[in-house]
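Need the bound structure for glutamine, inputs here:
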Amino acid sequence: MLKAYATFAQIQHDLHSKKITCTALVKHYLANIESKKHLNVFLSVYADEALARAAVIDEKINRGNAGKLAGLVVGLKDVLCYENHPLQASSKILDGFVSQFNATAVQRLLDADAIIIGRQNCDEFAMGSSNENSAFGPTLNDIDNTRVPGGSSGGSAVAVMADMCQVSLGSDTGGSVRQPAAFCGIVGLKPTYSRISRHGLIAYGSSFDCIGIFSKNIEDAALVLEVIAGADEYDSTVSQTPVPAFSSLLSAASEKKYRIAYMRDTLQSPALQPEIKTAIEKSLDQLKLDGHSVAGIEFPLNEYVLPTYYILATAEASSNLSRYDGVRYGYRSPNTTDLESMYKKTRAEGFGKEVQRRILLGTYVLSASYYDAYYNQAQKVRRLIREKLKELLKEYDFIITPTTPTTAFKLGEHSTNPVEMYLADLFSVQANVAGLPAISLPLGTDKIGLPMGVQVMADDFEETKLFHFSKQLMNLA
Ligand code: GLN
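Answer from helper R.:
Posting the output first, comments after.
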């Protein structure tokens, strides 16, 4: 039996010193997947393929020509295209759909000799905060099986938490990587919007969508980001900004002292679980003792962030999801009589309740009579939020908030009240509304042993600095 590796560097060390092989490593993860099947993490496990690829990469390691990610076993949220493999955004409407090509991020992982182990459960079309909106049933939190893992990338978070793979790729439109990372006690990174190509990522809210990374530590996230980020001819919105060598920059120890702001109202929010407040205050005190400057700031626009997100994200979703019409992809209702009934029945039977609610909301805010009152207005507020945050980030290096108002809640606890569920994103959507990079870091556990998370947000394309500081923050006593 292999142990659970805390870092990919240790895996590589053991691979190169012949203590282990990729084959043994893949078998180890497969055994964990098998023994924790009840968590409902994977929708497909590519066992034979992963083993075959492991053998090829073991050979490459022997010959000394293996890629940078040789031996990194990765899981993919069910929103990322992996050629000739099923893909359905945890939705019935994509039943039977098979990817025709690799997402750019997936292609880059493969080119660097990573091994893909399977497709992970999530909320349908990445809409949700608990993984309960999946057509395949919820994923369970590994610490307490009566609780949710967070969402929408719940399966991807639990896979890393329960050592079913070393790293997962998820997507973060309003917090879907950071929020489950906090609920599962791991690291969750949402890079700057446009840092990673969205080619091959199923669209939800295109102006918010980001591929994100789940890992057990900062170094693994930095290395994976360095491989998958950067210009791509298939995505005209991706940034041309050069991608720094995050991982080697990170290996140079930095004791740099930073200017840190925390948002006072997030800590005073009545929705915040008191233990999370105490833990964040303790970290802030330690940062001060460590020589960083720490200041409380007001951000009066905070109350508008969540409504702005839910207006714009649903508007974009209603447009993006219009392509699932029963003609081009996946499921088609068998009970139809003509073209119109085919569209209607396919969409009514294929989409789950939450996705239907979002499409209706989005269609409403885009409708001729309400476009100005909602959509246009929300666009203006979005610009204001971004401008104000950018101003603050001239004065401060980072803005700290809790990642989530509470620790992992019980299955079913919020599923009858959508607004309660949307509140789970209270602190995470800000970074998506503004397009800024943000990371969730583990911050101990509450009284009943559930993980808590702290979120750090930085200015556009400042991931290097964000990684350096994250390391310091994780190393605090
Ligand atoms: N929970 C948020 C939503 O339901 C965010 C989802 C996400 O980031 N994909 O929209």
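Comments: Residues 126-129, 152, 171-176, 204, 313, 425 surround glutamine (CB under 6 Å). The radius of gyration is 21 Å.
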